Amino acid sequence: MNRLSSFNVVSLTFGFAFLYLPMLILVIYSFNKSKLVTVWAGFSTKWYGDLLSNDAFLDAAWVTLKVAVISSSIATVLGTMAAYTLVRGGRFFGRTLFSGMIYAPLVMPEVITGLSLLLLFIGIGMDRGVMTIVLAHTTFSMCFVSVVVSSRLATFDRSLEEAALDLGASPFQAFRLVTLPIIAPAVVSGWLLAFTLSLDDLVIASFATGPSGTTLPMKIWSSVRLGVSPEINALSSILIGLVASGVIIASLVSKRNSVRLRLEERTAERL
Amino acid sequence: MRRFVLISVPYLWLLTLFLIPFVIVFKIALSDAALAIPPYMPTMKDGLRAMLSQLDFENFVFLTEDDLYWKAYLSSLKIAFISTVLTLLLGYPIAYAMARAPHEWRATLMMLIILPFWTSFLIRVYAWVGILSTEGLLNRFLFWIGAISEPLMILNTSTAVYIGIVYTYIPFMILPIYAALERLDASLIEAAEDLGCSRVKAFWLITIPLSKGGIIAGCFLVFIPALGEFVIPSLLGGSGTLMIGKVLFEEFFSNRDWPVASAVAVILLIILIIPIILFQRNEQRQQEAEG
Question: pLDDT for B2-34, tens place per residue?
């Protein structure tokens, strides 16, 4: 089974070329001197310079970062609480409704979520801006966090918690000292997921925002509707670079951790 | 007491910011344009009976009369369906090859499939604009190898939308199929071949049926979000490609017709409920089969 036929090799090569070539081309052409995006006219970092002196983009980037950090942090707390409730909460009134509300936003088209939130904000007369985007992003990303965390909680050995409780820990202490350290990787990946979802979102933010809050995707959107621009290529390359290095660092760290864990286990066995 | 706080905080959050907004969408979809101008809340405060007596299906009647909406729903269904099939045809061989790759490669291959998820969706769609336009790289390349003499019109057609959907959603197809294929017991295929089954026949009779769960899950994971897609048809499809997500967005932001936008949203939801329920059934069956 472990031998690749030539057909397998072709489909892997073609598949990864399809996934990565468009992004690679985007990055290469961000260093193009010409304003015409498809004609290569020599190497230049001019567009990066232009981008860094463009205040509108920098402002939007700052708003986006602020929204992403705040909303993903609140979403992580709420999502972890929701996951704990779903996995450990037992029976309570409206449990089915609750789990429905956790899963529904995952499959809901963004246009509908956005529309419904906007109608709510208008209905209660809330000023729209950064604050409303944070509320909107927190709402859908807490559901993603909750799914990630609850899958970890479900596989977790409950007797550890019970042991802590038997030994006199309060439920909160047991959570903080036993449960939290064990589910921590899932909580961290939930936060990261919420963070990237928020950074990336265009549709929901467009509905939820008002004149005062323009996020980076909204800014990118309004300029790419007019066609390809080298500045956007430069901006995209920076974002792709950040994500790629983030993922590579994360995977190296987790690899090192698992190697260390294995070493520790082996040492423990020998003792 | 603690348990109460633990449950009620996320509960109340979702009630206020997820459920109530939905009720408002339904309410506005069923009301006159004049009532839908804020403040529309007072009409809700009048109580359920007043609300029910004001029900008005005018917006839905309007939707059935204007064939723009019919066409948009049908064309969304068609585009989502065709792109799901294309994604399956392209994704299956990749998932299959991944499952046959040596063990030590698999983690890396998985990471390479997941990595695009973390990069901006908007940017991944935007990357195709420069490739597919008439002066774009694809046309230049085809011209250079002599395959075409006139530039092909791909951008701003539904072909570009298919390419965009397949490109952005293919990881959703590959991952569940790969998960199913990886669990597949290789000795079953060896047994079939030993018993005189040709490789192609063994593939049809064993591999495909045993990866059925993954195929179904992958198809729904592509079809459901593709149906309400807004960014891809707006950026790659041009004005000729009708999709309901785009119509809803434009109805709301350009025409400012909130009741009609809400009615469009309600019907989209009703259309989506069927595939979502089927998807959940499939997931449950999978879990039961495993457990």
Answer: 778 888 999 999 999 999 999 999 888 887 655
Residue A116 pLDDT greater than 50, yes or no:
yes
Quote the CA–CA distance of A35 and A231 in Å, as a whole number.
9
Q: How many residues does chain B have?
A: 291
Q: Which residue of A has its CA nearest to B249?
A: A111
Q: Are residues B209 and B134 in the same domain?
A: yes
Is the CB of B224 inside 8 Å of chain A's CB atoms? yes
Residue-level pLDDT at A80: 94
Mind telling me how many Å the CA of B43 is from chain A's nearest CA? 11
**What are A155-178's pLDDT values in tens digits?**
888 888 889 989 988 888 888 898
* Closest-CA distance of chain B to residue A271, Å: 30
Cβ(B233)–Cβ(B241) below 8 Å: yes
The predicted model gives A234-249 an average pLDDT of: 87
Same domain, B145 and B234: yes
Q: How many domains does chain B have?
A: 2
Q: What is the pLDDT of residue B5?
A: 83
Find, among B112, B106, B105, B102, the residue nearest to A248 by Cα. B112
* Chain B contact for A136 (CB, 8 A cutoff): yes
Instruction: Tell which B residues from 162 to 221 touch A, by Cβ distance under 8 Å.
Output: 167, 170-171, 174, 186, 189
Write down all domains in chain A, each with its CATH number in brackets: 53-230 (1.10.3720.10)
A1·B97 Cβ contact <8 A = no
Provide the token pair at B217: 């899950």
ipTM for this model = 0.86
Q: Which of B34, B56, B78 is the last residue of a domain?
A: B56
B140 and B31 assigned to the same domain: no
Which residues, in sequence order, are bridge partners of residue A43?
A32
Cα A8 from Cα A11, distance rounded (Å)? 5
CATH number at residue B109: 1.10.3720.10
Judge if B27 and B96 occupy the same domain: no
Residue A260: per-residue pLDDT = 80
Which residue, among A37, A1, A117, A253, has the nearest Cα to B19 in the 3D structure? A117
Q: Residues 6 or more apart from A198 whose CB is under 8 A from it?
A: A64, A67, A68, A71, A72, A137, A141
Which residues of A are less than 8 Å from B262 in CB distance?
A: 115, 119
Per-residue tokens: B229: 């897609």
Cβ contacts of B252 on chain A, cutoff 8 Å: 115, 207
- Residues within 8 A of A (CB atoms), B 225-254 only: 225, 227-231, 234-235, 245, 248-249, 252-253
Low-confidence ranges of chain B (pLDDT < 50): 39, 41-45
The mean predicted confidence, pLDDT, of chain A is 88
Among A1, A85, A112, beta carbon nearest to B228: A112
Residue of A nearest to B93 (CA): A11
What is the structure's pLDDT at B45? 47
Range of the domain at B45: 1-56
For residue B42, the model assigns a pLDDT of 44
pTM: 0.88
Residues B134 and B235 grouped into a single domain:
yes
- How far is C-alpha B252 from the geometric centre of its chain's CA atoms? 21
Whether residues A224 and B98 touch (CB distance < 8 A) is answered with: no
Residues of A in contact with B9 (CB under 8 A): 78, 81
